[in-house]
Amino acid sequence: MKVIICGAGQVGWQIARHLAGERNDVTVVDRNPDLVRRATDMLDVQGVTGFASYPDVLERAGAEDADMLIAATHSDEVNMVTCQVAHSIFGVPRKIARLRAQSYLDAIYSDLYRREHMPIDVVISPEREVAEAALQRLAAPAAFDTESFLEGKVQLLGIKLDEDCPVLDTALRQLTDLFSTLSAIVVGVRRQGTLFVPGPNDQLYAGDEIYVFSRTEDIPRTLEVFGKKAHEQHRVVIIGGGNVGLEVARALEQSERRVRVKVIEKDRARAERAAEELERTIVLHGDGLSIELLREANIESADAILAVTDDDKTNILACVRAKSEGVGLAISLVNDPSLIPLMGPLHIDAYINPRATTVSSILRHIRHGRVRGVYSIGDAEAEVIEAQVLSTSPMSGCQIRDIDFPEGVRVGAVEKGGQVVRPQGDTRIDEGDIVVLFALADDVPEVERLLQVSVDFF
């Protein structure tokens, strides 16, 4: 597949890294020659320096025979015009644009992106993706990471194991015997900074960060097995009243649970806008780092703080200060991946990386064949892939124990005829089944081969 990626920033870089690693023909376009040089030096990609929306620049990038264009520059307008030029002049079949401005995303204007108007096949909104991730973190407060699969029937949970976890020093094979009616399956373990896929005889230790698949209805019991308690969030304080904070507050207002929300916003105009748009939420104007303002928001009795300003350090320090005042759950938005190792020592319970959520969303739309969902783990360390099994797949008709999976791949869940079954060695994978696979980054190409995805591309 020939792909042009416009924008060599963090998102464009990660998409290029994924696609180039899977032996696609990738060209990166950016106006900044240093970013283009970094991409061509470190990745197996071609690079073009220039404005992505210029026809001559797209021509140099090979748009005439490109299969897909991903517009992920920092400008919404450049992304939109780039898709228009790619369609009108070069006939690029599939175009994906990242758009931030809420006005462009309003449902009443959705006709704008039809083929005869502004031909964009998929619109990605980072703010909405981040807001959705924040809501998922709030829904599973004992997990540092979470994502749903199989239309919400199965959840991936990231859980950090404490000293009081009841199943430490127990082989995973024994866990299956001890909790035979529980659907939970440990598919990944991060130990001392290294992520690996455990074997049946591997044990779990305090400090491990594990990734577990569980049926949604089994989540409370799964958390209990690994030493965590499920707490509902009734009082939430949000630091930052921008697009993300506003989206989360609006969703919490509309939820069936009666969640009391308070928003703290430093910018007066944003605070006034939030106060106008929200009905039951209390909006406070001021600095989220102010201990007096946090106390005015009753942070000591809040169940959770969600820090989603556009400044990483403000988010982290606000969480640290709130934890010192007694808040139960602290979630921080973190753009800089180098700050993520600080989350544990600073006792921040969970983080959201906008780059990872945006990359996952884009990957979900560019995978070949019957792939229905993709979720990126950590700093592109692994992927979770949800896909329907085709008749041409080497997996079709085989029991799981007989499928030649790489060591870095585990089956997390299987859906047969609309019913979720716990994957075991004798579970047969048939055509039409939907499988959810956890795969370390190096093994993703082999997973795609096993899924025979290219047969069904486009």
Label this structure with key terms:
globular, Rossmann fold, 4 domains, alpha/beta, Alpha-Beta Plaits
Q: Can you offer a commentary on this structure?
A:
This protein has about 450 residues and is of the alpha/beta class. It folds into 4 domains: about 1-125, 3-Layer(aba) Sandwich (Rossmann fold); about 130-225, Alpha-Beta Plaits (2-Layer Sandwich); about 235-350, NAD(P)-binding Rossmann-like Domain (Rossmann fold); about 355-455, Regulator of K+ conductance, C-terminal domain (Alpha-Beta Plaits, 2-Layer Sandwich), CATH 3.30.70.1450. The chain is built from 14 helices and 24 strands. It has helices at about 10-20, 35-40, 55-60, 75-90, 100-105, 125-140, 170-180, 220-225, 245-255, 270-275, 290-295, 310-325, 355-365, 445-450; strands at about 1-5, 25-30, 45-50, 70, 95-100, 120-125, 145-150, 155-160, 185-190, 195, 210-215, 235-240, 260-265, 280-285, 305, 330-335, 350, 370-375, 380-390, 400, 410-415, 420, 430, 435-440. The strands form 5 sheets. The protein has a 6-stranded parallel beta sheet, sandwiched between helices. A hairpin with a 2-residue loop joins strand 21 and strand 22 (about 420). Helix 1 (about 10-20) packs across helix 13 (about 355-365), helix 6 crosses helix 9 and helix 6 crosses helix 13. The longest helix is centred in the N-terminal third of the chain and has 14 residues, at about 125-140. The model is unreliable at about 455-458 (pLDDT under 50).
